[in-house]
User: Fold this.
Amino acid sequence: MRRIKLVDTREFEIEEVSTPRPGEKEALVRIKKVGICGSDLHIYRGENPVIKAPVVLGHEAVGIVEKTGPKVVSFREGQRVVIIPYVSCGRCEYCRSNHPNVCDNLLTIGGMTENGAFAEYMVLPEDFLINIPEGITLEEAVLIEPTTVAVRAIKRSRNVQGKNIAILGAGTIGLLILQVARIYGAKRILITDIVEEKLKLAKRLGADITLDVSRRDYFKILRKDDGLRKFDVVFDCVVNRESIKLSFSLVKKAHKVVVVGIPTKEVEVNFIPIICGELDLSGSYLYLREDFLEARKLIKDKSINTSSLISKQFPFTEVARAFQEIEENKGKLVKVILNMA
Assistant:
């Protein structure tokens, strides 16, 4: 089989390796499509402080079960599946307290502990898989995993029903949080970005207010329109010094900021607004299995507009061009998909 390996910063190679064989409780999955995530881009650019080349990227993957081990009970050959890119141990204190996403012994695909899905085949334990029901295309199914991130972020806010919320960053996750928040009853939604095309898309997807933070005077705009300052929850999908500062400017005192994005370097935080405003600062990392099932249902019900988020698709042999176009378009592309077969 063939797989794509990142062999150095911004350098891919397609290599031939043996097709793996499934163990007793594993399935051999023929990978069909993989979404390129922002975290893949950080590793590609050499910005991730932990994951470095050489590595096989990819975790937003869907495929078809080709073969199963004799003790696999939940899946059969020919079944379409989406990959859950992590498995917890089930034994540590976090797993036992229903926080498996922060498990001490977490196994993740895409470079952290295991190679990823930029490959024609993968062998995975059945716990890594969820079936794709009828009514969901493979393109839509690629968006199940990032939608799950959005579902988890909304849950970490405790409740958005009837509330005014702000979302910093109109990338894939920000635009999905926008849609999930609207489904869950958010009253008024602001979204920010530096790319005009993404802000226009956010408007079409239901944002009430958009704010171009590339403008030097955007803080003046906030001060002029007092209504822009009063948000019950802020979701930071960017996570840099400026976005943290903006989060504290937008959120009401005694309310919540949910940090969703993962920074590529240490971020300096001024704790005075947190202390004096009694702000609740929460992280949101990965998701629970129940969040995955909820995201799958939202996509099956067509509650999420996935087609507007898929910008381009490339054959996997053109992986270098796919990443180059993402970089050359400077944030204008939302979700790019590699077709593995």
